[in-house]
Write a structure and sequence with these properties.
- The chain has 103 residues and is mostly beta strands.
- The protein has one domain: Immunoglobulin-like (Sandwich).
- 0% of the residues lie in helices and 50% in strands.
- The strands form two sheets. Strands 4-3-6-7 form a four-stranded antiparallel β-sheet, with no helix packed on it. The protein has a three-stranded antiparallel β-sheet with strand order 1-2-5, with no helix packed on it.
């Protein structure tokens, strides 16, 4: 299983700024290893964000996204104590879900 995501969500007025750092190698499928063999593609394909269980953001990614991607966005109507969940799925079928409480 992949390392946990680092999620921070802070309220400012009637919205929350959410910052997510995802631990993932994000291989493009174009790099070669030391022996000259192509390293197979392995990257996050889909990201889904929920606010108290309701989907508020979806993103389709490809191999051009960097290693250990960082994502920042705002959620309108978020309050202290609300839950922000982030799920990603990768090209090898791996998945990771983590949740944070808005502060």
């Amino acid at each position: 299983m992949a390392d946990p995501m680092r999620i921070r969500a802070q309220v400012a007025g009637n919205k929350a700024t959410v910052r997510v750092l995802m631990a993932h190698e994000m291989e493009t499928g174009q790099r070669r290893d030391g022996a000259g063999n192509i390293v197979p593609a392995w990257f996050i394909q889909e990201v889904i964000v929920t606010h108290n269980g309701k989907v508020v953001l979806t993103a389709d990614w490809g191999p051009a996204v960097s290693k250990n991607p960082f994502l920042q966005f705002t959620v309108k109507g978020a309050k202290v104590g609300d839950k922000i969940g982030v799920t990603w799925k990768d090209s090898k079928g791996g998945t990771r879900t983590d949740e944070a409480t808005v502060s």
